[in-house]
Amino acid sequence: MEYSNLISQLLKGHPRAAARLITFVENDIEAAEEIVNSIYEHTGNAYILGITGAPGTGKSTFISTLIKIYVEQGKKIGIICVDPTSPLTGGALLGDRIRMKQLFSIDNVFIRSMANRGQLGGLARATEDVIKILDAYGCDIVIVETVGVGQSEVDIFKSAHTVVVLLVPGLGDDIQAIKSGIMEITDIFVVNKMDLPGADKKIAEIQQMLEFKKNYKYDSKEISEKFAKIEQWTPEITKVNSKIGENFDELLGLIKKHKSFLEESGVISNYLKNRITNETIQILKYKLTEKVEELLNSDKEIGKYIDQAIKKSLDPYSMANLIIKMLGLEK
Amino acid sequence: MSKERKIKVLCCKPGLDGHDRGVKVLARALRDAGMEVIYTGIHQTPDDIVNTVIQEDPDAVMLSMLSGSHNAICPIIMDKLKEHGIDDVLVAVGGIIPDEDKTFLESHGLKGFYGPGTDLKTIVDFVKNNLKR
Question: Which of A46, A69, B40, B132 could form a disulfide with B12 if both were Cys (CB 3.0 to 4.6 A apart)?
Answer without folding.
Answer: B40
